[in-house]
Description:
Layout: E1 17-20, H1 27-45, E2 51-56, H2 62-76, E3 79-85, H3 88-97, E4 102-106, E5 115-121, H4 130-141, E6 151-154, H5 158-169, E7 177-181, H6 191-198, E8 201-205, H7 223-236, E9 240-244, E10 251-254, E11 260-261, H8 263-277, E12 282-286, H9 297-301, E13 305-309, H10 313-322, E14 327-329, E15 335-337, H11 348-361, H12 366-370, E16 377-378, H13 388-407, E17 417-421, E18 426-430, E19 435-440, E20 447-453, H14 457-472
Parallel strand pairs: 2-3, 2-4, 3-6, 7-8, 7-9, 12-13, 12-14
Antiparallel strand pairs: 1-5, 4-5, 9-10, 10-11, 14-15, 16-20, 17-18, 18-19, 19-20
Helix pairs in contact: 1-2, 1-4, 5-6
Amino acid sequence: MSEDLKIDPYGFREYDARWVYEKDINQLGITNLGKGLGSQIIEHTKKNNPRVIVGHDYRSYSEEIKTALKKGLISTGCLIEDIGLSLSPMVYFAQFNLNADAVAMVTASHNENGWTGVKMGIRKGLTHAPEEMKELKDITLNEKFLEGNGKEKLIKNFKEIYKKDLINKNKISKKIKAVVACGNGTAGIFAPDILRGIGCEVIELDCNLDWTFPKYNPNPEDLKMLHEISKAVKQNNADIGFGFDGDGDRVGVIDDKGKEIFSDKIGLLIARNLSKKHKNSKFIVDVKSTGIYKNDEILNINQCETIYWKTGHSHIKRKVHNEKALAGFEKSGHFFFNQPLGYGYDDGINSAIQVCHLLNNQNKKISEIMNEIPKTFQSPTMAPYCKDEEKYKVVAEAVKEIERLKKEKIKIDDQEISEVLTVNGIRFSFQDGSWGLIRASSNKPSLVIVTESLTSDERKKKIFDFIDDLLQKTGKIGEYDQKI
């Protein structure tokens, strides 16, 4: 490696790549990433000049990063089709629409300013999973680059093709009044137009593009963003509020009373709605999701199965694909719709559209529909700081300890642990359906903690206290981003 090249190995995450720009990676590092990715695409597609769709999000430095990335891709022989300012799902859609070989989207999604990254994929509708990321890391850091002659062309106005595709398939007959919040992120030039196009009355909130994110990060799990949407829903007497993340692959939902509905519950409503027409379907949910899918009466009547799987858009996407599931739902707001509803990838706007269909099909408000599912007491997703090099060890220790408590039938808040799921960190459940989760974050130096009780707020808190106590004893965790 040359001296002035900077590329921190920790930036290669489980299913995408993220760095703080110039601190952890510089332009030369990004170009090498492009060379690594180009070499990987050529190896996998067995083509000397594969066609790669490239797009970028609206951050002050995203375009210069994209330029450096393209330079690397072109040097290996890739033919770049640059669709310009994009959402991640628009790049995924372009791979189908233009029948390309691979995608590379420059985005750090909802991470704070200063962060950058790339979401990439070779197989249509799927993004890199851990094995591909490992391979990419090896090619890039060891400079096992192929050489070739690539070139690039600009695809003009592709965003209109993407917008029309979603609008034309999804017209609704009911006038739904929706607050659309984009946190000044890239979704601002997409979501309002598309939702208006299908027939909604749209109230825009922070939809003008501003890469300083002056009010809050565009992150639908951020309580600040959710409170702003809630206020706007109440002020405008709206039917629903939608909040989109920085690259438009996630959505958060606020009901007509201004109350946040966690995405896993929205997923359950959509699954119920779909199960009537698509009996015997499978749904995939991540380990952070509510426990009530398991025994849901409507899903059971329609003979649908729910599988709990690893958190992370790439993991759920692949599971949806491999299981031929109808849809997948992630607690963080990534929803995946397979044919006939979508191409299997996560698109926050398509997710919002599915919620609009739900309202269009029923003569009820979203808060009334919500009342039909069992009430549970859920914590937000909480992330205590934990170093990248320590987080997996901390989780492994917690798994051991919780498995010991289960084996020895030791009670937590008067209940024994009845079930342990370790596909991703540890999710431990009790007889009353309550559960807690501890896992390592895939894209930040932190852990992820979620708890849910089917009986009371206090019980939810007791499970959190147990987890927090367990982790504090390690001496390896720092501040939480938010706490109950």
